Amino acid sequence: MSDWNVFDNILKKPTRIIVIFYSIQEMIFYTIFYPGNYFVWLCRAIAGVVMVSLIILLTRIKGLSNRQLSIIVPCSIAIVEIITCLIVHVDKQLYIFLMGIALLSLTYIDTVGLLVTILLTCTTYAIITMGFRIPQTGAEFHFEYDLSSVISLTTIDFLIFLLGKFSIGALDRSRRTGQTFDSILEISPNLITIVNDNAKVEYISKSLTELLKFENQQSAIGLPFTDLFSTAEQKVFFNRLLRRKCPIEETFNLDINGKRRWFIIRSAAIGGSEVARLFESVEITRIVELQLAAEAASRSKGIFLAQMSHEIRTPMNAILGVSEIQLRNKSHTPDAEEAFKQIYDSGNLLLNIINGILDFSKIEAGKLEIVPVKYDVPSLLSDAVQLNRLRYESKQIEFKLSVDENTPLELYGDELRINQILNNLLSNAFKYTDKGTIELSVYPEKGNDEDTVTLVLRISDTGQGMKEDQVKRLFDEYVRFNMETNRSIPGTGLGMSIVKRLIDMMGGQILVDSAVGKGTTFTVHLPQKSIGSSICGAEIAESLREFKFHSTPISKKTQIVYEYMPYGSVLVVDDITSNLYVAKGLLTPYGLRIETAESGIEAIEKIKSGNKYDIIFMDHMMPIMDGIETVKNIRGMGYTHTIIALTANAVVGQSDMFLANRFDGFISKPIDSRELNAVLYRFIRDKQPREVIEATRREQHEYVQNNNQMSEIKKYVVSDAENAVKTLEEVYVKLDASNTAAIDRYITAVHGIKSSLANIGETELSTAALKLEQAGDARNFAVITEETPAFLDALRFLIDKLKSSVNDEPIEISGEDTVYLHEKLLEIKTACEKFDITAAKNALGDLQQKALPRQINETLDEISVHLLHSAFKKAATAAENTAKTLTP
After folding, report:
1. Using CA atoms, how far apart are residues 490 and 391, in angstroms rounded to an integer?
2. N or C: which end of the chain has fewer CB within 10 A?
3. Predicted pLDDT at 870
4. Residue 642 phi, psi dihedral angles, 5° rounding
5. Which residues in 561-655 belong to E strands, given as ranges?
6. How far is residue 562's CA from residue 678's CA, in Å, rounded to a whole number?
C-alpha cells in the first residue's frame, strides 16, 4: 500500500471517529457543566450534527484532491466550531481546537493546503480574540495573555507547517519517539509534575497520581498545582517553591495513610517562565528513617553515657576525695597510710578506665582534642603494663619491658591519649599472641628543637602477624582480620583507627612491620615537650624492667603548694552531704571562708541576703532546681562573681554547655586537686594585690587535719538517711498515680540517699535505692509497695549502726556474741595459716556486720589491711592475739 493510500485511510476512518467522539463529549460536557441552559445544549447538538455530517459527506467525495481536502475538511469543521463559540460564548478551548485543525490538515501531507488552513484559522482566531475581545485563556480578557495565545497559535501552526515538509518516515519516527517517552514517564517510579504559566498541572506522572490518591492522571491535569496537596502546610510549602526563580532541591514530607513519608524534590523553570516548572521527586523515606534511628540511638547513647558518668563518678568523688584528705593526715600509722594510697591509686586507675570509656562519645561527636599536661613517664608505663599483665595473666606469654635510662622522667603532653595508645597496642599484642614473647621498648629520640623530645614506643609480639594487604587496611574503621580464627576474641575493630587518629593529632607517626606466623612490631613516634633535664636513670629503669615500680600519682598531688587564702570566700552547693564533705576537705588547707548549701534554692537565698563569694562551686544535677536553673536565677539577680560548675557528667560538650549558661568554668567529679588549685589561683589569689598576697604568706601556718574526718562523713550520711526516712514515711502513704508531687518527692529522696550509701560502701542498699528510683520513674507502684518497707527498715538499722560508730559510745557485747567473735577470729587465723584469703575475708565480713567495740573494730581494720597486702602471718597474729583477750 502506498503512503498516499495510508494517509487516505487515516483521513477517512479515524478522522470520522475523532469528530464524532468530539461532538459527543462536547455535548456531555455542556450538559454537565451548564445544567438547564437549553439554548447552549441545542447549539452544541446542532454543531455536532453538522460536523459529523460534513466529515462524512466530504470524505465520500471522490473527485477531491488531497490539497482540496486538506483545505475544505479542516476549514469546514473550524467554521462550524467558530460559529458555535461566537453564539454560546462559553467554550474557551478554541485555541487548542484550531491547533487540532492545523494538525488535521497536516495528515494530508500537502504543504500548500496546510499553509492555507493555517492562514485562515489564525486570522479567524485573531479576529475573534483581539477584535471581539472574547477571552480564550482565562475567565476575563487579558490583552497580554490572549495576545500571547494568538502569537502562540500562529507560532505553533508555523511549526506545524515546517513539520509538513518532512516525509512520512520522519513523522513516523517522531511518533515512535513520543510513544517511547510517554512509556518511560508511565513506568518511572519518580514523581513528575509539569506546571504551566498559570500554575496549573500540565502533566502528572502515574506514580504521583497513585500516591496522591487521584482516580487517574486526567483528573489531576488542569488543577492548580497546590490543589494536589491536602494540608494547608503542604500548600504553603509548594506555593513557596512556585515563587522561587532559582533551581530547587529540598526535602519535604507527606502524611499518607497515617504514615509520614519523606521525599527530595528538584525543580527547574521551563524556558524563561517565572511560573512554569518541571518538578521531579524521589522518595527517601527509608533513608530518613535510618537517619532518625541513628540519631535516636546516638541520643540514647548520650543519655546513657551521661547517666553512667554521673552515677559512677559521684561515688568516685568520695573515694578519691576522702582518701586524698586522709593522706594529708600525718598521724596515720604506716599501714593505714599505705592502705589509703592503695585506695587512691586503685581509684585513680579505675577513673582512667572510666574516662577512656566516656571518651568514645567525643570521638564519635568529632570533638576529640589533645589536652597536654605535665606527666610522669615511669608511672604512665607502669600503669599500662600492670593493667595488661593482669588482664592476660592466664596466657603463657613472656612479657619484657625495656626502658632506656636516658628516657625523660617527666614530659609535657596528653597523658590520657598516650595511655590509650599504649593500652590499645599492648592489648592487641596480648589478644593475638597465644604463646611466645611480647616486648615493650621505650627510648627517647632528639626532637626538632631543644624544647622537644620524641618518645618512642615499640611493641613487638610473636603472634599471628598480618599479610601486606591487611597492614594497608589496618587503620580503617571496623576492620578485623582472620574472623574465623579470632571469632572468640572480643573487639569491634575500632581500636587501631582511633590509635592512628590520636597519633596524627599529636603530630606523630606509627610504623608497622608484620609477617604472617612471625608476629608484628608497632613503632610509635610521639613528639613531646621536654621538662627539665631529669631522666629515669638506671634504678627506675631496672624497677620498671622487674615490674617493681609503683606508680604514685598521689605523691604528685601532695606536692601541691596550698596557698593560704584567708581573704577568699567560697560557697559549695551540692545536694549530697558527703560531696560537701569532700569539697570542704579539699578546700580546707587554703584557709578559705567556706560555706555550703544543700540545694539551689538555699544558694539563691544566700545571694538574696547580700552574700558575695569569690567563687560559687555549683553542682550540676540537683533535685527540684538543678545547677543551670539556679545559676540562671542568680545571674538574673545581677550577681556577676565567679560560678564554677561541679559535675559528675563528663561526656562531650559539657564545657560549651556550661559556658553558654553563664558559668565561668567547670570541674569534673571526682575533683582533681590540681584542677581545683588552678581555679582557686585564677579566681581568688591572682585577683589580690601583691602586698596582700605577701602579707598572707607571712602569716601562713600549717593546718592540723582532723583525725576523725571519716567519722564526720558518717555523720553527714546519718543526716541524709534520717531525712530520707522522714520524707519516705510522709509520702509513702500518699503515693498514687494522680499525686505527682508525692511521686516526685519519693524519687528525689531515694535518688539522694542512693549516692550517700554508695559513698560509704553500702552498695547493696544503694542498689535497692536505685531500683526504687527507677520504679518511681516508671510509676511501678507494685515494686514501690512491695520493697519500700524493707528499704526503710534497712535504713533505720544503718542509722543506728552509724550513730554507734560515730558517737563511739561503749558497746557491751553479750556472752553469745563473745563466743561468736572468738570463733570467727580463730577461723580467720586458721584461714590465714592456710593462705586461704577467701575464707579469711568471708569471716572478716561476717564480723564487720556486727556492732562491736571500737578496739575490736580497729583490730578488724588492721586485719583487713594485712589481707589487702597478703600479709597472712600478720593477719593471723592479730586475730589470735585479739581472740586471747576474749573469754567465751
Report:
1. 13
2. N
3. 60
4. -65, 135
5. 569-573, 593-597, 615-619, 642-647
6. 11
Classify burial at 585, counting beta carbons within 10 Å of its beta carbon; exposed 0-12, middle 13-18, buried 19 or more: buried
| Single-letter amino acid code for the residue at 181 | F
- Which three three-digit cell numbers place residue 555? 605523691
Q: In sequence order, which residues have a C-beta less than 8 Å from that of residue 504 and are 6 or more positions away?
A: none
Closest CA to 95 of 75, 122, 114: 122
Contacts of range 845-849, beta carbons closer than 8 Å, 24 or more positions apart? 847/821
Cα Rg of the chain (Å, integer): 45
Whether residue 637 has pLDDT greater than 90? yes
8 A C-beta contact, residue 534 and residue 377: no
DSSP string, 5-62: HHHHHHHHTHHHHHHHHHHHHHHHHHHHHSTT-HHHHHHHHHHHHHHHHHHHHHHH-S
The answer to whether 796 touches 804, Cβ cutoff 8 Å, is no
| pTM score | 0.37
Q: State the residue for C-alpha cell 558497746.
A: 811
Ranges 33-47, 498-512, 769-783: which has the least confidence: 33-47
Structure confidence by residue, pLDDT tens digits, 156-185: 667 666 666 654 445 555 555 555 566 666
Which among 320, 354, 314 is positioned nearest to 340, based on CA atoms? 320
61-63-68-71 Cα dihedral, nearest 10 degrees: 0
Angstrom distances, CA of residue 800 to CA of 719, 732, 805, 847 = 12, 22, 9, 17
Cis peptide bond N-terminal to 670, omega within 30: yes
